[in-house]
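hiii so my PI (J.) wants the whole complex modelled not just the main chain, which honestly fair. so below is everything: two entries, each one labled with what it is. i double checked the lines twice but i was tired so who knows lol
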Amino acid sequence: MKSLDELAKIREKALKKVSTRNSDKKIRIVVGMATCGISAGARPVLNALVEEVNKRELVDVEVTQTGCIGVCRLEPIFEVYQNDEKVTYVNMTAEKAREVVANHIVNGNVVLKYTIGAYEK
Amino acid sequence: MSLVRSHVLICGGTGCTSSGSMSIHEKFEVCIKKFGLEKEVKVVKTGCFGLCEAGPIVVVYPEGAFYSHVKVEDVERITEEHLYKGRIVKELLFKQALEGDVIKSVNEVQFYKKQKRVVLKNCGIINPEVIEEYIAFDGYKALGKVVTEMTQQEVVDEIKKSGLRGRGGGGFPTGLKWQFTHDAIGEEKYVACNADEGDPGAFMDRSVLEGDPHAIIEAMAIAGYAIGASKGFIYIRAEYPIAVDRLEIALKQAKELGVIGDNIFGTDFSFDLEIRLGAGAFVCGEETALIESIEGRRGMPRPRPPFPANKGIFQMPTLLNNVETYANITQIILNGAEWFRTIGTEKSPGTKVFALGGKINNTGLVEIPMGMTLREVIYDIGGGIPDGKAFKAVQTGGPSGGCLTYKHLDEQITYDNLVSLGSMMGSGGMIVLDEDNCMVDVARFFLDFTVDESCGKCTPCREGTKRMLELLNKICEGRGEIEDIARLENLAVNIKDSALCGLGQTAPNPVLSTIKNFRHEYISHIEDKKCEAGVCKALLKVTITDKCIGCTACTKVCPVDCISGNRKEMHVIDQNLCIKCGACIEKCPVNAIILK
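here's the output for the full assembly
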């Protein structure tokens, strides 16, 4: 170990690997992973979300799974929880999921066209 | 790009390992492969979570789902339901992690909520065998700061300002010890870590070394810099194989990375560490005996002064601190002495780790801010006494400590307060006793331990404690005389005054404190020949009550044929022949036979 900078670099790299171990994050993305969700293609959606969150180093975002959200015909579904508010995205694909991360999670603009509200209209 | 979205943390502490956590670890690896999740889920072996009662423990992040009493058979279910489908398996969660239908994460469970984790902050969070994980949680940053930005005296001053006191039991101000060793003159100086944890029931040092070994290595290097030493020894007992193993791995990694070795952080400071294994003698936890043992001699204390700060290992100035004391150092350097003083009380700042044991629901390791009351620890964190039994006493400080009663439940836990109540902090064993514990027997148990562990060098300890034990045995066997209490007290005072080291000086404490707080139990043993708690066998009688249905089952199991009676009539035990083995009690189908 030659300098503090060297240590800081190791730390930065290692921190990414352990940030999952924190159960009080600000934003939670919950993917419906019941039989309906999985068969409709929730797994690629989940993987895309995790990849995107890691790539963008969004340390305050937790990606987790849940069971059946209830509207099986609109699966894959995921919900974004932030400040006691919930946004539900339906008919998701890996591509759409990446778009949501970029627009909603990073920039704070809810992607209205993919939400359950837009769909029901 | 990494797809890891979930971490499965499995406790690799001694408690959970002995109840099979390593086979659970293997099973998780197999199951995760089976469901094709190996890229998404990472399995991590960590140090002790503290709630050993509920082991083996598995925590799944990001949810922080707290699974307890996990069996190998449960692993497939957790993998399929939770990891694959995202449904937390509620039935397998720690029961307090489930409130109605609401799942609480590990940090919200009552057991952890009231705790303040400074020493144990990484235990159950990081993989102790991977140095990068330690670094991720600010590891080696304190060492870097110290050697590049601070002078030796500034480090010593910071520790002094923090008010940290020795966590090994004595409570001597750590900063002062550092100052003495800093000021001492010698061609070489040494830093040593006392990891010879010997109190029955205490295992906090083991858990720190198992869960966060780098914290000790880093703190010792900091201490080395502060006092001007370039060599350190960790003295650890060989009975702690997992801790020794992790320490060796950690030390190897630290050397490879160059945080231990020559020219640390590009400065002139070099530091090397060596692990010395102890054979498990209790007396080697005493500082001068430990030093003798490190030097390769028989572990026996030597008279003080000279103190180790002036003449320690190989007659050189030596700084000797306990594991838990060192575990506080990096935190004090990183967060400042002021921060440390905000925790705990004025004279006892910081936290203390206790090993909760005995008659308590949540057996395990707890770390609390100093100044918390005994009641909070036993009832709020410990979950109270099992099976609705009544609380009788709490023993702190192990064989050197004493017993406190319900009168003391609302007393604060600080060094000085515990001493003034007739007990002591000790290294942090906290054994809870209920109505089924006989206090004379408890005193006898601890004295039996010290008699065994006395090294024999000085007479008061070698002979005196033995005589005390004989008196206690006499009382427990129903041959006690009322004068024996005074004899015990007289011996105790003399041993305390004249023994060479801490072992002997504190050995009479369990006897003195039980006589003080539970004198009536001694008297009832001596005068009424009765042991109310039903522990001292010689004072108990096995009797058959009128619930007896005359089935003759007991007569057949009695090994000495002392039960007589006709079929369908009440049976009688011949007390002269009975050996109180209890076989009849177990056999009786209607619970008609009692031991009282």
